[in-house]
Amino acid sequence: MAFARRPRAPRLLGRLLGPRRGACARTMASPRCFALELPGCTLAHFAVGHDAAAAPLEPRAAALLGPPGRSYSLCVPLAPGAGCAARVRAARLHQRLRDQLRRGPLQRCQLRRLLCYCPGGGAGGVQPGFLLHDPRDSPDTRGALLALLGTYREAPRPRLGEFVGDPRRQVWQCLWELQDGHGWREVGRERVVPAPEPALHPVVPDLPSSGVFPTREAARAVLEACTAFIPEARAVLDLVDQCPEQVQKGKFPVIAIEGLDATGKTTVTQSVSETLKAVLLKSPPSCIGQWRKIFDDEPTIIRRAFYSLGNYIVASEIARESTKSPVIVDRYWHSTASYAIATEVSGGLQHLPPAHHPIYQWPRDLLKPDLVLLLTVSPKERMHRIEGRGMEKTREEAELETDNIFRQNWKPFWP
Prior knowledge:
By secondary structure, the chain is an alpha+beta fold. It is 35% helix and 20% strand. It contains 15 helices and twelve strands. The strands form two sheets. It has an eight-stranded antiparallel barrel. Strands 10-11-9-12 form a four-stranded parallel sheet, with helices on both faces.
């Protein structure tokens, strides 16, 4: 089941290091649009609720949605304009659902990323989910899905749709709903038709509230919503609150060195710091590094809030140290932002936000370095170095290694 995304970090880091400038069902407006991740680094966009006389589906999408197999959509409800607490709940529900779909009888099916969104874009209009495709159309698959979703007792519950074909080779989506005292019932059926590809990937408007946080307070609000179930979140917040909200760089230069693991950052940062007699800092800083594994197992919104706040702690260290000597920083904001974008934007490199999009702008309240360097090596050499060192792979490194789509599209942004 090839579902893990390989973060497109080199391409994204290149963009970020370029010229710096200062209810899936009836709760959404009809027609509802979907973005389905297809093999080969592409997305298929389709909609339900359109005129039945519309054009047929794109062949590869039709093959996944229609017979001879059977597919199901599972979307996590997220109301437009939802706050941090609702976003965190939805993200954890999405991760729990993904893990459960990969186990038991449902692991025989193919799992693909699916987004339900409102046409026209805008923040707060995306509901994350999955397409579960059963090539054999086993009668047990629907039963296993209904049993699984029946274990979700509290709102929000994942929304279930089932795709069926008719004799005219049209595809329809049937919506299922758990009704108190009556069990599961089919509550609607609508034609599935192609939809135009939006100008921007549907998740891009949501990125400032789900991973690429524009301010310290935006990231802080996410961890504040996590304190009830992640005790370490409170400890991180306490450290952040000890840092001044606005800091100024001293008279000495500050250089940030970016790159994936095994690109030579350790060697370069140590060499440069020794040559310049500079202080060497790392992000995340050591004071929160002990909790890194805990947050790495959480959904993107929580993981990126943790790393974002780490940058603000490092910024206060930079401000202090740069009054006395040059400062070298091993990773900083660019890594945090690029991993968030790569994780959330499905499909290939062509779906990334265009160069100079506001999402790449430096946070207005975060101290800026004077110079940023991006280190790159070939994917083959990088993996050879990791294996030779016996390095423990992070969750994101494991995704980098296993995602064939990204390996086929590995193109450093800089020539």
